[in-house]
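Title: Prediction job returns without error message
Component: structure pipeline
Severity: low
Priority: P3
Assignee: unassigned

Description:
Job completed but the reporter wants confirmation the result is attached to the right record. Sequence as submitted:
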Amino acid sequence: MKSLPALTTLLGAVTVAAPALADGGYYSGALGARAAGRGGAFVARADDVTAVAINPAGLAQVDGTVFEFSNQSSYNSYAYTRAPTPDWGNAQNGVAPTVAFDTVRNGTPGQLADPFIGVASNLGLHDWGFAIAAFAPPGISKIQFPPDGGQRYLMTSREAIFLNYAASAAWKFRNVFGVGVTAEWITVPRLVYSLVINANPAPGAANPVSSMYDILATTTGSDPFTFNAILGAWYRPTPSFEIGLAGQIVPANVVTHSTLSATAVDQAMLGDVTLTRQGVPATDVTVKLPLPLMARAGARYRHLAGGREVYDVELDVEYETWSRANQFTLDTNGLEATAAGNQTIMLGQIVVPKQWRDTVSVKLGGDFALSPDLWTLRAGAYYETAVAPPAYANVDFPGGAQIGGAVGASLALSPGLELALAYQLRFQPSVTVSEANARVFQQTPASPCAAPYTDPNTCNVNYPGQPSPSVNAGTYTATSQIVSIALVYRYGR
């Protein structure tokens, strides 16, 4: 009785751990304080070192040498209130009590560091620009919820740390057009994900709230190297009008080398689980996370007076192929799971659908030179379509539409030294999912209920056509407040 639930529950742990690691939450906000203050509308302008990631062609417009250091700090308020549900695991005389859930919130809302450091120079070549940089893509590295909260079967915690190293080169023809390319080395030093799954093996069992067979499953891993590349271009048909284009062109995948652990909440009920490969103890697994391709386009109007730019307005559109990440793959590379020393199963390769969609974002922003060579003010706004259908909403990623705005300013501290500040607000209008529409089901790998999930002898009659209770019904909200600061030093202009 103990060994079978433990073994099959471990299989379920492997299955559900993979998609949560693909959280896109680490893509949040704009890179660099100057771009952030414009709401991210920077593709056509791209005139500082952050151009390595936004539009490398902009580096051809760098005069002399530019050093840039910036950091982003954020407060990320994520909340989920699970919809009240009938608890058929505690039904009396055929009547199930309705259980309501408290709102759960991200227990680690503050994030202090999201740094960028880089240098760009024309190396004395009038028509060329070069740059190297190291940075963390803007985003939320850690989210944590109570292990006994209403989201326990969706996720309890996850942590994702991404670092990018970039080298870029750009060339321009006079001041008419320019092209550039960036080669990126992406490293993922840490990916962790945990959630609770239900290993109840009884036919027709339904425990939508909690179960004595609950198990906490965790994967921990890293990826030392993923290659990526960005191409960019700009065209200036008149001194007052400029067009920028950029694209992430390599269909890259992050492949993490991870370890898997499964811990029974009630050790007396399920016992211990051991992992082996060809009889040798092992816990290593591989998680494959497809990254989206990206295309950006921007148009910028520059208002000039005496050859000096007084203000500019830019409109950008960005398209990301998140549908490329419609599934996530975890390969156990021949890993076997054994419980109570007498039952073993092969875990194999597991593919999990996520049903993500391509997204489109629109960004509008600009700068105004309040005092030439001293004060510059900037502001912007943006909108991004939802990446996840409501039926697949989850606490691991705020997948609804995103609306936001930003303000910022730059101050010349001394000749060549600029201090830039920006504040961004990112807001997801609440997403509400009913139990009838919810399509994220509790993981019950020990259950004998099989597709089409209608056998009354093995499936619970209260969930017709479902493998188990849905667990993502409820209301989701997400708000991020982001502060960016940068020091930009230029010399040799």
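Comment from assignee: result matches the submitted record. Confidence is low (pLDDT under 50) at residues 1-26.
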